[in-house]
């Protein structure tokens, strides 16, 4: 959608599907549900798909503000951050404490 930059995602290399089937961590050896998630995510990661109108789309802008920048009174910069200033490479391993 363009709600998050690709630099903030951990890699999901689609090339791993090119490994021989006998390889110990070939995706074909994964549990079926994990395999069905990995295949389309690998495609999206490999193509780096981004909605072409993400910068001007009202819904995408609202999602960005709500998900990343809106805290407190909701003006988008309560903590001195804006979407453009988020250090995406540092967010790769950020997980909510309750999800650890």
From TrEMBL:
Superkingdom, according to UniProt? Eukaryota
The GO terms this record gives for MF are:
intramolecular transferase activity
Query: What protein family does this chain belong to?
Result: Belongs to the terpene cyclase/mutase family.
Q: Kindly list the GO CC terms recorded for this protein.
A: lipid droplet
Record organism: Chaetoceros debilis
Question: What sequence ranges are listed for the domain Squalene cyclase N-terminal?
Answer: 1-72
Please report the name of this protein according to its UniProt entry: Squalene cyclase N-terminal domain-containing protein
Entries under PANTHER family matching the protein: LANOSTEROL SYNTHASE, TERPENE CYCLASE/MUTASE FAMILY MEMBER
- A Pfam family the protein falls into: SQHop_cyclase_N
Q: Which GO terms describe its biological process?
A: triterpenoid biosynthetic process
InterPro entries associated with the record: SQ_cyclase_N, Squalene_cyclase, Terpenoid_cyclase/PrenylTrfase
């Amino acid at each position: 959608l363009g709600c998050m930059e690709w630099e903030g995602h951990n890699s999901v290399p689609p090339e791993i599907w090119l490994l021989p089937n006998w390889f110990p961590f070939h995706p074909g050896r994964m549990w079926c549900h994990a395999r069905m998630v990995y295949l389309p995510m690998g495609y999206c990661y490999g193509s780096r798909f981004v909605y072409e109108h993400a910068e001007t789309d009202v819904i995408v802008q609202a999602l960005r503000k709500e998900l990343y920048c809106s805290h407190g009174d909701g003006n988008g910069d309560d903590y001195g951050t804006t979407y453009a200033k988020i250090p995406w490479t540092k967010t790769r391993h950020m997980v909510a404490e309750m999800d650890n």
